[in-house]
Amino acid sequence: MTQTVRCAKSHDGKVWMVCVAKRTYSFAGGRVTLADEQAPVVIDPDIETDQHDRYRTLRDDMDLFPPKPATDVVVTGRAHAPGKVRELMVGVAAGRSARVLRVLGERRVEVTLEGQVRFPDPAPFESVPLSWDLAYGGYDAYAHDELDPPERRKGRRVEPSPREEGVFAYPRNKVGRGYFLDVDRDRADGELLPQIEDPGDPLAASRFFVQAPRAWLDAPASGGLGWVAHTWYPRIMRGLGAFLEHDPPAKPIREMAFADGADLGGPFRKNEVLPRFVQGAAPGLATERLRGDELVILKYLVQGQPEVQFALPGEAPGLSVRPPGAPKIFTPEAVLQTVRIDGERRTVSLTWCGAVRLLAPIAEEQLAETKLGVTWGRW
């Protein structure tokens, strides 16, 4: 078990003393036991950057948010097939939060001289990493230069390099593959196609090329079970409001088909922060606030086991804390913030949070002297 006390602001600017307690369990044989190695509280987001120090992906989000509207369910690991297959449906469910993905073997797009698109059969595979790099997305640098050339004066480029990618990097997933705007089609011939898809919004040859940069909202949804970066849709829309340029969608927004996407219908105001901005789970995996005793189902996410089922441990921390200078001890209710599932290590970590409202932030040295009492019990 790991624990900490920090100050944090909620989406509406209120200041809180956040009390975090975390426990990691191993799962096997349909039950969970306390793990020998306990995952630490994540103080700062673990962000992957590129060679230009630009934000690419979110490997792990911090644990120090005030209570979230719902519990994030986040899965890392690989898809494991029962032998060599060309396609496999994998998924996770915890309470009412659930997501199913289609995983495929490697394949490359074929584009004829006439610009017609064809997808060949996927190659056989046994295991595929659950990585956003293998899902639909990416950055179409060629189209960016063709449709929005760098600013030049007297033949010299004056715009900084690298450029701000804007919507030429797929807003749902900037690091994936398969995102091509409809410019010079032959350049896409032989490029790798996504290996992880949302079966409810798959990539097809008929919709391979996106007709315009602002039409990205109608492009296929990216398939993933990991953390959604703060700078990706839908999270950035919840954090900055009317920020991403897009044409009116010609079809229903895929994320709104999930129970946790109702707030994406808009209208949005610039710089508006919605309560669900703090939710970092993939669409469908932050549907409700879990109690901590729900059944978890993993399909083809653990090697050698087509389906794994176990119940979360059914225990929660009792929290007690006295802020510096406070006349009494506070006992905030602990809520389940995040469930992290690692299919390779066969572990599940539960992060709990309680919060005490403050009038102003507390200095770090005072926080260091604040004692957090934690007692674990079942209900």
From TrEMBL:
Residues 13-352 form the DUF2169 domain. Pfam families: DUF2169. InterPro entries: DUF2169. This is DUF2169 domain-containing protein.
